[in-house]
Queue: 3 jobs
Job 1
Amino acid sequence: MSVSVTSTISTPVIANSAARILQAAMALCFGAIIVGFVGFSHIEIVHNAAHDTRHANAFPCH
């Protein structure tokens, strides 16, 4: 004899939306920090690597 038990856990839509907005905001801030660091970096290797990556992805940079 086997017994199957299922349960559903519902999450509020508001909490789910807030989590998505928080994740998007954090990703945007993290991306801005990385772009700012690389774009204004005085370390030539870091700057040239980003520059070459932009050209490889057909993204105009100058």
Job 2
Amino acid sequence: MASIEDKVWSVPPFNSKLETGIRALVVLEAFYPRRCDLAEMTWFDHLVVHTGDLDGHDVPESLHPDLPNHTGELLVRRQLVEQSMRIMQQMHLIEVFECETGIEFCAGEEAPSYLGLLQTPYSLALKQRAKWMANYFIDQTATEMRVLIENRVGRWTAEFQITETQIGLLK
């Protein structure tokens, strides 16, 4: 029988559901009160750590290295982002809304208190980039963001994300 320590150490810390959920929460808190759908959250999960993929005034340096083909991450991230946000919802940190256009997510009432506890240099840098990103996208519609993602990250990855959301793969 596996011990609790074996179970804890068997979960990879990088890109785990918990880490991705915390990133999603940081992004949603930065965008508050704006609600975001799954496609947007998948894009934002990528962009908050790869801010260098965006153009503009005072773009912060990416938190994660720019590896070859890192834009392909979008293709595999949707399911992880969705699962991670479910965990944050179960912890009452993210609220889920069923709307005419689909399912949208927003930071919950407890989010600021929880995020205030995260004070590591990486967490602070992540929060700073999320705030910068929210300001970058503040006046853009989902359609305008999609065009930007197509142009900066790749048309095929943006289309893949939109198509998956439209056909209702969100369960």
Job 3
Amino acid sequence: MRKYIEKVEMNNHLLYEEMLEASKHIFDERTDSQEIIDFLVALSRKGETAQEVAALASVMKSYAVQLDVPEGVYMDNCGTGGDGSNSFNISTASAFVLAGTGVAVAKHGNRKISSAAGSSDVLEALGIHADFSEEETMAMLEQEGITFLFAQKVHPKMKRIGVIRQQIGKPTIFNLVGPLTNPLPLKTQFTGINRPDFVMDYASVLRMLGRERAIVVSGAGGMDEASLAGQNTFVLLDKGDLIPFSLTADEVGLDFAPASAIRGGDAKENAAIIRSIFQGKRGPHFDTVAFNAGIGLFANGHVTTIQEGIKRATDCILSGKALQKLEAVVAFSEKINQKAVAR
């Protein structure tokens, strides 16, 4: 491991094969924790490459639990996190809207690492527990058209890495890798990163991983979501082609709003924000979810334009379908809890 640390500290990129070997060391319990910290910090300072990200994603996914996946076409919409925007849980809210429109969503997520509330934290605050068995996770997907895959549950080797990431306290390559390691076979994906310079590289990694259609965004101000606060940088992957484009909120009929308008808080506060959106409260929080869910619908191929996607997402929320989907998943979770108590 030390030779790779030294190479990266000298600002040299690792070859794909080198990163494969280094990644295996990262997941080896015998590797000293401080060496892993040194390696991850050095990579972050240097700036990760597409080859390094793809190699780590490949190794991490190979260690994921094997799930008995019901037949279907699934998408994920989780972002990399670590953008420092302190926004509420936009992709988690958007996932319920996507599911409410009929898209089958397998949402990858985690607890807070570099934010006040991770996906798992806010779901628990909404009444959805994080301790589903593999069978229950897949049953939710089959029954409700949405499920949540918690990183430490589906990636058992991440338990130790999670502790190391918390010790570092800053974004690492694992933020970039997270959305790439969903254990389900995904054909479509909408994901965000906080590096506008890396959007094309990230889309090329998704292509290498076999996505047929996907969108990568780096939002205004470095958000890992599409933002109302300025120009958003995108790449659309469509049947092997990588198509860059940019977009502002006003170009799709939404009002400008500064990033401060969508700040969140802890899990309880963010859960309250999501419920208020689903109850039809209009404003920047609502528009941000409609924007991102609309792009997700376009990435999935459910609509032919982002504008059409935003309209469908808005209709889904105002009709109560997004709230109904949330309540159905909460009820599913409560039923599982009651069975556990009865046992």
